[in-house]
Amino acid sequence: xxxxxxxxxxxxxxxxIIFNVEFCHEKEDDYIFMIDFRPVSFKxxxxxxxxxxxxxxxxxxxxxxxxxxxxxxxxxxxxxxxVLFSHxxxxxxxxxxxxxxxxxxxxxxxxxDAAERGIECIISSLNEEAKHTLETYxxxxxxxxxxxxxxDYVYSIDDLADLKGRKYQKKRNHINRFRQTYPDHKVVPxxxxxxxxxxxxxxxxxxxxxxxxxxxxxxxEKAAIEKAFEGYSELGLEGLxxxxxxxxxALTLGSRMSANTFDVHFEKARSDADGAYAAINREFASYIxxxxxxxxxxxxxxxxxxxxxxxxxxxxxxxxMIAEYxxxxxxxxx
Length: 334
Known about the structure:
Layout: H1 10-19, E1 38-39, H2 45-52, H3 64-69, E2 72-78, E3 81-88, E4 91-95, H4 104-117, E5 122-126, H5 128-137, E6 142-146, E7 152-156, H6 157-162, H7 169-181, E8 186-189, H8 195-212, H9 219-230, E9 238-244, E10 247-258, E11 261-269, H10 276-291, E12 297-299, H11 307-314, E13 320-322, E14 325-329
Parallel strand pairs: 4-5, 11-12
Antiparallel strand pairs: 1-2, 2-3, 3-4, 5-14, 6-14, 7-12, 7-13, 8-9, 9-10, 10-11
């Protein structure tokens, strides 16, 4: 499902992805802005993640895979930090710089870069420490906001793999019904041999949603999962698929987020396969726990303010939530 920036800019994201919008504030051929950004590509994974490991607490929007899935992302290395320039339709934002050491010089350049481009300076992905740093360096320069719909739901991997206790009784019941209905089902890793079948299942899933006329716009998520299939190996993604008599019943895929956390990017199941969502959820938690014993948490990303998604995520009892702020440069009247 969509992680994206912490501004929940679904409409702008859709415009950018579907129509491949370029920066609306273009520079003249002979002009170089304060920060010389370039588009993020799959080949940047190693460089990007060498900086990202320094961050202990971060939201899912900063995983390299999500950068490649959502919007149009650009990056530069500035004073020992990775600086991102994210473009969503007509809106541009600067996620908080990634790297060790003092951030003052980098933030100064971000502010100057925005001024040169003639755009509003918006800095996203601020945890409490980053917010405090920004407030200390620039008193009264920014206004701060948060959006509960963009909080990450983070779960104990043991809770999701074991489903112990009364609070998970309904989940265990769903899985038992699934096993009774599909006693010969198989769980296999996603690889190059089965991606074509997964694409067919996902296409049918979106067609079904479109036929039902739901309020949610799935176009940007569909585009994102297509990018995930395209870059599955290069992005270091891992996933599982549940098969029964050769048919795909459910799939999930994710990527390593930090030393102790794995990010679950997408999870899909056939609507007529009762218990398939609960089954793939538990299978993936067990798979990741066995393969990576040091992973303690699964980040299942945000609910985007969708009531049904919120209830589903709450029903698994998150261990904690990741709340982040975004900052907008104050206007003279504020």
